[in-house]
Design brief:
The protein has about 210 residues and is α/β, with parallel strands linked by helices. A five-stranded parallel beta sheet has the order 2-3-1-4-5, with helices on both faces. It has helices at about 30-40, 55-65, 65-85, 100-110, 115-120, 140-155, 160-165, 170-185, 200-210, and strands at about 20-25, 45, 95, 135-140, 190.
């Protein structure tokens, strides 16, 4: 898709520092790991639904049908891409979710085939800032349930977290979707989190990025 000049991304000259994305189901530990990585790298961190989108997501999920919901999350990831382009001229960037979450979650929630969601997103790929590495976090179902119990105890459970187990088939669909998206992602690195602390995971990720640096 050829974009009118007003819609083209703002170009930035100079060095483009590393851009790392963390993906996976809700509650798997992306946010905690992002905090550790951000501190270790001296990076900027962001969520795909950063302000102002983060304040609107609950109402969007409750009130909008599937296609308007997709447009909302698409606008969120386009906005995140703009932010990443600017941030990575000053230093590394760590994102908690990105394009893969838009595809995987929308497909699972609305029962839309992954290929159809990816096709809706395809025209906008030239606008999206590509990551250097996308780490897909995995864990056992029991470990995920334990993390959810801990979040619930601390009143940190979100609607997305709760629906993983309350909506029949939701968790299985999400896990399958992330596996399928990772298999087609040239930046993908699958990382098993069971029995590993956020610090240990960060050590592994930093070692991996160092050894794969051009």
């Amino acid at each position: 898709m050829i974009l009118p000049s007003a819609y083209e991304p703002i170009p930035y000259d100079g060095i483009r520092e590393m851009f790392v994305v963390l993906e996976g189901v809700s509650g798997i530990g992306k946010s905690t790991l992002a905090e550790v990585l951000t501190a270790r790298l001296g990076a900027t961190s962001l969520h795909t639904l950063s302000d102002p989108h983060s304040a609107w997501s609950s109402q969007v999920n409750e009130r909008l049908n599937a296609l308007p919901q997709f447009a909302f999350y698409l606008s969120g990831v386009l906005h995140a891409a703009d932010a990443v382009r600017g941030f990575r001229t000053a230093g590394p960037v760590v994102a908690d979710r990105y394009v893969s979450s838009v595809i995987s979650c929308h497909s699972a929630v609305h029962g839309v085939p992954l290929a159809d969601v990816a096709r809706l997103l395809e025209p906008f790929h030239p606008y999206l800032e590509p990551p250097d590495h996308t780490f897909y976090l995995r864990c056992s179902e029991q470990a995920l349930r334990d993390r959810m119990t801990a979040k619930a105890t601390g009143s940190l459970l979100t609607p997305d977290d709760a629906e993983l187990f309350s909506v029949p088939g939701r968790l299985a669909r999400l896990l399958d979707n992330f596996d399928s998206v990772a298999a087609a992602d040239p930046t993908a690195v699958v990382l098993d989190t069971d029995g590993k602390t956020p610090g240990e995971l960060a050590d592994w990720i930093l070692d991996h990025t160092e050894h794969t640096r051009d």
